[in-house]
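Quarterly update, task 2.4: FE2/S2 (inorganic) cluster-bound model.
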Amino acid sequence: MIHPATPPLTLLCTLDDLPEGSSKGFGSDNVFAVNYGGKIYVYRNHCPHLGIQLEWAANQFLDNSGSMIQCANHGALFVINSGQCVSGPCTGQSLHAIPHQIINDSIWITAS
Ligand code: FES
């Protein structure tokens, strides 16, 4: 769905679809979102190590503690609120943050 506001925005999901402490992938846009600490973060689903998707299982982007983004391929760990890799083969590199807005309890990104 495209929001009528400009610039064009693309709907990811409602906030109800992304509860606190969860993550969700959106394959058609190649992005994923995380709800952590009451804030929403959206990143491109592209690990800086090999340039491939981070998850092996649907919507599983967090480590066992739920406090870090984890790449399932080689275990790289990323800080949720910055996207910076702090452990693994791409330490010091970062995920690509996607600008987003919360409108009417839904998460929207700039249409690509
Ligand atoms: S592809 Fe992500 S850590 Fe290797």
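Highlight for this quarter: The mean pLDDT is 94.
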